[in-house]
Every structure is written in structure tokens, then in C-alpha cells.
Amino acid sequence: MQRSSRDPGARSIPVPEDRKLYVVDSINDLHKLNFCPEGSQHLLPPEEKIPEAGSRSADGRSRLLFLGLVLALMVSLVLVALVTFLIIQTGSKMDNVSRRLAAEGEDIDELKKLNSMIVQRLNQLEAQN
């Protein structure tokens, strides 16, 4: 709102947008009461001019969007925890399999040594006969 030249000491106070509209409507209502004949205009009571904060559909939508976002974040957090758990489990199982393969490899080497010893002994017995 602009300052009038008659009131140099007036200060500019920050006013919310809905309050500005209320002030302008109030001034218009006073003007209509002073200059318009009675009964020519139906004036709204001030309670109907100020919208209630809870009645806005945008607030409901933003709240619903926020709740959806929080729910999506919680679900993604659970999924990340599950994937991490599965990776750790898979890693430990792979370690177990590696240990088994190493142990079986050693067993196979021992069996090869035993096989070669048996073959040598059989060749010696054939040579003696």
C-alpha cells in the first residue's frame, strides 16, 4: 500500500496477502455504506471474507504429498536395508563356498598323489612278476 502525502509518519508494516484483501474489502464496505443508498448492496460479514487456513485444498494436497513422500522414503529405506542384508549374506556364503573348494582341491591333490603311488606300486609288482 502507498503512503498518503497527508500522513508522513506512517510506517509500512508487512501484512499477509489475505489480510490486505480484508483491509481493502473493509474500506470498500465503508465506502458503500457512506455513499450508496441503503439496501442497494448486500455486504458480506467479515467472517466470510477471511478464508480459514484449514479450508484450503492446497494445504490438504501438500500434506498428502508430504505424507506420500515420507512413505516412499521409508519404503526405500527398508529396501536398501534388505539389499544390504542380502549382500552381506551372499558374501558370507561365497566365503563358505571358497573354503569348501579350497579344501576339496587339497583333497583332490592328495587323491592324485595316492593314485600315482598305487600306480607305481602296481608297476613295480608287474615288473617283479
TrEMBL record:
Keywords linked to the UniProt accession: Coiled coil, Membrane, Transmembrane, Transmembrane helix
Superkingdom to which the source organism belongs: Eukaryota
Chain segments annotated as transmembrane: 64-88
Coiled-coil parts of chain: 94-128
Pfam family, one: DUF4577
Protein name: Leucine-rich single-pass membrane protein 1
Upper taxonomic lineage: Eukaryota, Metazoa, Chordata, Craniata, Vertebrata
